[in-house]
Amino acid sequence: MSEKEVKIGLVGFGTIGTGVAKLILEDGDSIAAKTGLRLKLACVVDVDTKSARPVKLSKGILTNDLDKLLKDDSIKIGIELVGGTKAAKQIQLKMLRAGKDVVTANKALLAEHGNELYKAAHENKRCIAFEASCAGGIPIISGLRTGLAANNIMAIYGIVNGTCNYILSNMTSRNEDFAEALKQAQRLGYAEADPTLDINGGDSAHKLAILASIAFGCEIALSDISVEGIEEISKDDIRYGGEMGYVLKLLAIGQKDKGGGISLRVHPSFIAKDNSLARVNGPFNAISIFGSAVGQVMYYGRGAGMMPTASAVVADVIDVALGNSATTFAHLHLKPRSETEKLIEKIGDSISRFYIRVMCKDQPGVLAKMAKVLGDNQISISGTLQHEGVGPDNTIPVVIATHLTRQKNVSAAVKEIKELDVIGGKPVCIRIVDIPEDKD
Amino acid sequence: MSEKEVKIGLVGFGTIGTGVAKLILEDGDSIAAKTGLRLKLACVVDVDTKSARPVKLSKGILTNDLDKLLKDDSIKIGIELVGGTKAAKQIQLKMLRAGKDVVTANKALLAEHGNELYKAAHENKRCIAFEASCAGGIPIISGLRTGLAANNIMAIYGIVNGTCNYILSNMTSRNEDFAEALKQAQRLGYAEADPTLDINGGDSAHKLAILASIAFGCEIALSDISVEGIEEISKDDIRYGGEMGYVLKLLAIGQKDKGGGISLRVHPSFIAKDNSLARVNGPFNAISIFGSAVGQVMYYGRGAGMMPTASAVVADVIDVALGNSATTFAHLHLKPRSETEKLIEKIGDSISRFYIRVMCKDQPGVLAKMAKVLGDNQISISGTLQHEGVGPDNTIPVVIATHLTRQKNVSAAVKEIKELDVIGGKPVCIRIVDIPEDKD
Question: What is the rounded distance in angstroms from the CA atom of residue B171 to the CA atom of residue B327?
Fold first, then answer.
C-alpha cells in the first residue's frame, strides 16, 4: 500500500525521548505495514547535544535550537518530553502556535496547566495527545475516551505510581521498613534520587487530575484533590492490617455520587486481600474503572519506564497522524471548573471506613476509654485487634477498624484519643477502602 | 456546545439490541455532553415486532421491513445484532451497499466471512466497527488498534468465553462435575440451552480469529486455529493439576515466533496459580497481551451480557460518527491469507509442556514402563504425582508433567501408553502453558 510520510519533531532527548527515537527508527517498518504511516524523526531538540544515547540519529537531526523545529513547516507533530512545568509549557505553546499538534507525557504540566493548554490548542485548531501522561504503557486514556465512551463513569480506583507500589509491596512481602524499601527502589531505578513527588502522592494526584477530568468530563484543579503520601507508613501497620485481611496500596480515587458530587483523593488505602488491585505488585500499575453499562473493567501493565512510555507516545503520534486525535480532542468538552468546583466533596465530609492504631499503656480500662471517645463521635467499631507483647515505653498496639464514618468525625476522635492519659505516641489512622468488586 | 444529530438504524432487537436501545435512549444526554453527538435511534428492524421489551421506542420506529432502514438515507450507521452468519451477512452487505457504516457484535460472522465483508466495506468506502465482537465490555480491539499501535504484538493469552470460565471456576472451587457446573451455568443464564459453541471452544476460536488478525496484521481463517473444548474435562484432573500448582482455564492463544511463525490455539490449559489470568473467575474475561515495547498489558472485565456488550456497540457508534472508525478501518491492512497461511504453525509441531494422567493397575513396574515410552519419544518428565487409593477396576491415577516437547511426540507416546497392559481407560492429556508473566 502507499505510505504517507509523517515528519516529527521531538523536544527532550532523555530516557523517554531515546525510547521514542528507538521505536520510530527500529520499528518503522512494522508501524508502516500496520498503519500506512512512515514516521520520520526530522528534528530532535535537547540542551545536551553531546552525550551518547543508545540510539543513532542521522547527522544534523540533533540540535539545541528549538526554532529549527518550530520553523520547519513540514513537521506537523511535536513531541514534548522535557518534563517540568515552566520551559515545557512554553515549548508546548510555541509548538501549538507554530501549527503543530502536540504529543506529551508531561502529567505535571497537564495537571497544573492543562486547561490553559487545551484552550490554546483549540484556539490554534490543533490538538494535544497525552496517553503517555498516565500509567505509561497502559492505554487508559484512549480506553476512557473511546472504548468506554458510552458509559457514565462512576468511579476510578488506580494504583498509578510504580515507585510507591514497589515500596509498599516490599514492605508487605519482605517486612521491610519504609527507608529500606525506598533505598532498594532507588538502587533498582524504581525511585529517583529525590523521590519526594512520588512518595508524597503528588505524582498520583497529577495522574488522577488528568484521568478524572476525562472520566467525569470536567475541568479539575490539583487543589480539588486531597493528597496523602506513604512516607509515614510503618511496616507494623501493614502487618496488623494484613492480619485483618487487608493489603495496603496507595490509591488514586475518583468517585461520583448520584447527586453529581465528586470525591477526589490520593491516600494509603487498606483494600481486601482478594480484590484484583490487591494482587498488583512491584512497579506495576492497575486501574479499575466502574462504568454504568460495562460494570468493572481493569487495566494492568507497566506504568513507567523507557519503552512502555515510549509505546504510548508513539501510539499518540500515530493517532494524531491518522487524524483521530484531532477529532477526539475537538470533542473534548470539559465542564468549566467554576461549575465543577461546587461538586467537589470536602475531604472532611468524605465517608470511609478507618483503621486506627493506638499504642496504649497495658492497664485496665484502656479499650473502654477509647471506645467511649469513638462512640461520642458517632463512630462504630467493626473489629479490633490486640496482640500480647509490649511496645516502646511498655505500650501495646491496639487496632480498631471502624464502620463507615465521616473523616471529620475520625479526626475529632483521634485528637481526643491522643489526649487520653493511657496513650503513648501518635495514633495512626489509615482508610479502609471497600472497592465494590464486580462479582457474580 | 452545538450537537450533531446522528441517525442510527438497528437490526436485531433481542437482548443486546434492547441494551443498545436503552443506552441510546437513557444515556443520550451524557453521551451528547461528552461527545457532542446526539444519537437518534431512527429505525429498529426485527422479525418479531410484537414481544414486549424493557425499553420503550417511539411509535413507528420498530418494523420488520429492512428496506425501511436501507432506503432512509439520513441513517448513516447500521447496527447488525441479528447473530448467525447467513442472514446477518446479507444484512451487513446490504447496509454497506446502501452507504451505511456497519457496527456489529457478530464474532461468528467476522471470523468466518470477515475478509469478504471488509473487502465489501472498502469497495463501498464504508467501515465496519466490531469492538463488541470480542470480550464484550472490554475495549480490547481499540486497545490493540490504537493504544498499542506502536508495538509488535508477540503474544495474546485470553480467557474469552465466560461460559467456559464459569464452568471451570465452579468445577475448581466447588469440586463440581462438568455436567453439574454446566447445569448451574444454564440456570443462571451464563450458558445457553444449546451450549455447544461455547463449550467446544468454537466461540473462543471466533474471537481469537478476530483478535489475532488485528494483533498480527494478517488475514486469518478459522481453519488456521486448532480448537479443543472443555467437554471432557474431569474434576479429578482439575484437582490433581491444582495439587501440582496449576489452575485450569480455557485459553485462546496467539503467539508469534521470531521467524514470523504464528501459533493459534484454543485449548484447556493448566496455568500457574499465581498468574494474573489464573485469578479470573466466574463469567469474567481477561486478555494478556505482550507487546515489544510495552511488555505485558492485561485487560479484565465482563465478556458478555446485555449492557457490557451494548456499551461496546455504542462506543463503536460514537467512534464511527466522529469519523475515527473510517480512518482506522481505511488503515486496516491485513496481509492476505495466501501469505500468512504459510506462517501458521501445525498443531503437531507446537511446543508445550503437558499434563498426562493415566489410570494404572496397581502393580510393580508401571511407572517404569510409562517412563520408557516417554523417553523413547524424546519426552522428559518434570514431575509426577501418584496418590494412594484405588480408581475404577482397581486402577490408580498416575500423573506426569513433562518438560517442553512437541505435541506430536506426546500424541505418539500417549498412543503407545494406551496399549500398555498395565493401563485402564484412556489417558488424559492437557497442556501446561507457562505464560511469561512480566515481573521485576
Answer: 45
- pLDDT of res. A210: 96
Interface contact B147-A148, CB threshold 8 A: no
Neighbours of B412 (CB within 10 A): 17
Residue A243 identity (one-letter amino acid):
E
With contact defined as beta carbons under 8 Å apart, do A121 and A254 qualify? no
Quick check: A297 and B143 CB within 8 A? Answer: no
Q: Cα(A306)–Cα(A54) distance, rounded to whole angstroms?
A: 12
Contact state of A308 with B293 under an 8 Å Cβ cutoff: yes
Residue B415 grid coordinates: 498412543
Closest CA to B122 of B151, B148, B144, B93: B93
Residue-level pLDDT at B365:
86
ipTM of the complex: 0.92
Q: Write the DSSP symbol of residue A344.
A: B
- Across the range B364-385, mean pLDDT stands at 93
* A202 vs B421, more confident: A202
Q: Grade residue B367 by pLDDT with cuts at 50, 70 and 90.
A: confident
Residue B437 has pLDDT above 80, yes or no: no
Picking from B55, B25, B27, the residue whose alpha carbon sits closest to that of residue B40 is B25
Average pLDDT over residues A126-139: 94
Arithmetic mean of pLDDT, B388-416? 90
Backbone angles phi, psi at A354, to 5 degrees: -135, 145
Considering CB atoms only, which of A33, A282, A438 is closest to B440? A282
Q: Which of A27, A34, A288 to mutate to test the interface with B (most CBs of B within 10 A)?
A: A34
Of residues A182 and B361, more confidence is placed in A182
Geometric angle at alpha carbon B89, from B87 and B92, rounded to 5°? 110
Count interface pairs A-B at CB distance under 8 A. Answer: 215
* Burial category of A145 from C-beta neighbours within 10 Å (exposed 0-12, middle 13-18, buried 19 and up): buried
pLDDT band at A302 (very low <50, low <70, confident <90, very high): very high
Total residues belonging to chain B: 440
The confidence band for A1, taking pLDDT boundaries of 50, 70 and 90, is low
Q: Is the pLDDT of residue A393 over 80?
A: no
- Top residue of A146, A163, A216, A284 to mutate, by most chain B CBs within 10 Å, is A146
In this predicted structure, the answer to whether residue B155 has a pLDDT above a threshold of 90 is: yes
CATH class of A348-432: alpha beta
Check whether domain B140-302 has CATH 3.30.360.10, yes or no: yes
Pairing status of strand B37-45 against strand B101-104? unpaired
Domain ranges of chain A: 4-133, 140-303, 348-432
pLDDT for position A354: 98
Which residue among A30, A295, A315 sits closest to B146, beta carbon to beta carbon? A315
Catalytic residue (one of A22, A107, A207, A249): A207
Other residues' Cβ atoms within 10 Å of the Cβ of residue B362: 15
The helix or strand, by DSSP H or E, that contains position A327, with its residue range, turns out to be: helix A324-330
Per-position b or e across B39-71, b if 16+ CB within 10 A of its CB: bebbbbbbeeeeeebebebeeebbeeebebbbe
pLDDT value at position A439?
65
Which residues make Cβ contacts (< 8 Å) with residue A312, sequence separation at least 6? A105, A131, A132, A136, A137, A139, B147, B150, B294
In CATH, the number for domain A140-303 is 3.30.360.10
Across residues A30-56, what is the average pLDDT?
94
Nearest by CB to A318, from B149, B293, B295: name it. Answer: B149
- Determine how many CB atoms are found less than 10 A away from the CB of residue B371: 15
Question: Which residue in chain B is spatially nearest to A298 when comparing CA positions?
Answer: B300
C-alpha cell at A245: 485481611
In CATH, the number for domain B4-133 is: 3.40.50.720
Fold match between domain B140-302 and domain B348-432:
no
Residue B35 confidence (pLDDT): 87
